[in-house]
Amino acid sequence: MVDTPSRRLLLFIPAFNCARQVVRVLDQLEPRVMVHIQRVLLIDNRSTDGTVEAVLEWAGQNPGLPLLLLRNDSNYSLGGSHKVAFDHALQNDFTHVLVLHGDDQADIRDLLPWLEDGRALEGDAFLGSRFARGSRLPGYSWFRILGNLVFNSLVSLVAGRRLTDLGSGLNLFRMSPLAGRSYLSFPDNLNFNVYLLLYLVHTRARFEFFPISWREEDQISNVRFVRQSLEILSVCLRYRLNRQKLFAPRRDLPPDRYTSRVLFDVTRDS
Ligand SMILES: Nc1nc2c(ncn2[C@@H]2O[C@H](COP(=O)(O)OP(=O)(O)OP(=O)(O)O)[C@@H](O)[C@H]2O)c(=O)[nH]1
Ligand SMILES: [Mg+2]
After folding, report:
1. Residue 78 Cα to ligand 1 middle (Å)
2. DSSP 21-82
3. Class at the top of the CATH hierarchy for domain 9-249
4. pTM exceeds cut of 0.70
């Protein structure tokens, strides 16, 4: 492990209606993983299936984890939850945010070798890829594989560099390039990641992809294929036409739009 005293890593777990899966995600957080992580921020996005109760029960049985559980005041979708998490990281002096989806499709242990040799922390982002050499996709449908490959190619063409995933569920970001909070103007839905990726390209951030495994077992996909595809086409077009304008800071956003409540807090490092 590379131990930089000033480095503080926040693990952010977005969760929405994944009661059965989220406890498996928490089970992934073994001591060899947690040596790299200073706080776990689990954000529930107004689940209605007992996700919060499942997390609370797990936390009662596993008191050692530095866990902060928040519940958004309204459903802000996946992108909105990223905004809450990034803001939390900036306000609490975290240098990095590691995102791990709460529905147990990714495995945080895929990142461990890169955390241990320090490579994951060298650039501005280290992005899990479901479609790189060495990735594994047990149970993932060919239709979704094909759809993802088509859009990866399209966005790569627009970005002018090879992008092997537009948004998997395992990604590490350095916070300093995001300190201006440009992400607040990205969409709240699942296309937040596509904007973030294009923003990294636009700002010449240093990032690379690493191969991950991605399971499809008992998860429920909330992806709206047609709508999201049209949105990706639209952002590609706008990026080509005027990317300065696409990423210009917006002044029309109310400052306290993404509010949340603390449900459980056993963090002790702050
Ligand atoms: N869809 C959705 N997901 C959310 C929300 N808030 C948090 N999440 C979490 O974000 C993750 C991504 O959602 P999914 O619908 O599974 O999308 P995906 O995994 O990127 O795509 P698939 O490969 O189709 O499963 C899940 O872990 C959800 O629990 C939300 O409001 N909407
Ligand atoms: Mg999923």
Report:
1. 6
2. HHHHHHHT--HHHHTT-SEEEEEE---SSSHHHHHHHHHHH-TTS-EEEEEESS--HHHHHH
3. alpha beta
4. yes
